[in-house]
User: Which sequence fits this backbone?
């Protein structure tokens, strides 16, 4: 379970023990028991802090910042593969796939498409919506389990966006939970590191790791990218209310760098059991109830999972965001992709509260309660 609401600058770890007890330490989530307005950390009360140079820490004397989601974008490959197309290469059909998964089409990388080009397209759309220039981005988080370089793809995103200030860019590997971890990481950097504009990209090309002779897995996955621009703001405008993150290494399948392997029944049971618990925990930390949220946005893995989780949470079908039928399971891209489409269609409006959750390989899972705009 994550306990990450106290954000100390990494350059002063030795000072942690000298914090005066008058400063409250909060559990996993961002809200203190008093209120958002109490989320103030006074670094001037740390012995020796006045001796730190600006080169040692970019954190101001008082941290009163929140963070908000101000831009979104997405991109998908041009090649569309339907269930009927798959029926030509494996023993399956449209009805069999759609009834069991809710998927009818998926997009697959081909030709000149690449994961980086999709990511850059999604990122540019998010920056344009947020009215932020690439040079004003000071951190890029690339959430992916399928980078185009063994050592990560994030720096290539920075290069392609032509960010002249050379902002920090790095990859986060957590499969289908990656984007939720990216959101929490962005908040950490903004609240504890003084960053202003953090670009989060969720992108995966799982089609490169699919066994196209295995009808149990090849029908599920697609390729895509989604992006969100998270920006520093006053604490009263904070848009990330709370979170809940977990992992369990016992859920790992046999290690392999070849093709994806998955136990669908076990994943279903795991998701339907753990995801509602995680969302309820995050809501409790935020001081909210299920009835307080406008939308439920889950990792787009399987429509049966989405429906089962919603039923357990007593969320009506009309409040579920789903684009699974058109894209399949796009791993770390699925949440920002669905979010962007919902925003651009007018479904999600500024001020709406969203309960979002990712879950998948590892096992990893987590949820976050966010507000758009």
Assistant:
């Amino acid at each position: 379970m994550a306990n990450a609401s106290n954000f100390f600058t990494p350059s002063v770890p030795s000072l942690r023990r000298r914090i005066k007890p008058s400063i409250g330490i909060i559990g996993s989530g961002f809200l203190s028991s008093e209120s958002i307005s109490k989320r103030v950390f006074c670094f001037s009360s740390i012995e020796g802090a006045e001796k730190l140079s600006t080169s040692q820490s970019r954190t101001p004397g008082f941290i009163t910042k929140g963070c908000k989601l101000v831009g979104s974008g997405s991109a998908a490959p041009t090649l569309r593969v339907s269930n009927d197309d798959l029926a030509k290469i494996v023993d399956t059909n449209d009805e069999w796939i759609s009834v069991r998964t809710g998927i009818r089409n998926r997009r697959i990388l081909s030709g000149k498409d690449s994961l980086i080009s999709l990511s850059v397209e999604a990122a540019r759309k998010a920056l344009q919506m947020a009215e932020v220039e690439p040079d004003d981005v000071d951190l890029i988080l690339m959430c992916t389990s399928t980078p185009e370089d063994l050592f990560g793809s994030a720096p290539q995103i920075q290069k392609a966006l032509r960010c002249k200030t050379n902002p920090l860019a790095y990859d986060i590997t957590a499969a289908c939970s990656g984007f939720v971890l990216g959101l929490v990481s962005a908040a950490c950097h903004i609240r504890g590191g003084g960053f202003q504009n953090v670009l989060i990209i969720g992108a995966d090309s799982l089609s490169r790791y699919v066994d196209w002779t295995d009808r149990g897995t090849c029908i599920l996955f697609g390729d895509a990218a989604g992006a969100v621009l998270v920006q520093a703001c006053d604490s009263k405008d904070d848009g990330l209310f709370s979170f809940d993150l977990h992992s369990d290494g016992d859920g790992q399948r046999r290690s392999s760098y070849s093709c994806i392997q998955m136990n669908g029944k076990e994943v279903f049971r795991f998701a339907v059991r753990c995801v509602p618990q995680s969302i309820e925990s995050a809501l409790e930390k935020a001081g909210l109830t299920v009835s307080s949220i406008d939308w439920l946005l889950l990792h787009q893995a399987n429509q049966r999972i989405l429906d089962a989780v919603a039923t357990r949470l007593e969320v009506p079908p009309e409040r579920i965001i789903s684009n699974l039928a058109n894209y399949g399971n796009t791993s770390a891209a699925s949440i920002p992709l669905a979010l962007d489409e919902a925003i651009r269609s007018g479904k999600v409006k500024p001020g709406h509260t969203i309960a979002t959750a990712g879950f998948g390989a590892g096992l990893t899972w987590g949820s976050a309660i966010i507000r758009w705009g």
User: Anything to note?
Assistant: The two ends are 28 Å apart (CA to CA). The first helix runs from residue 83 to 86.
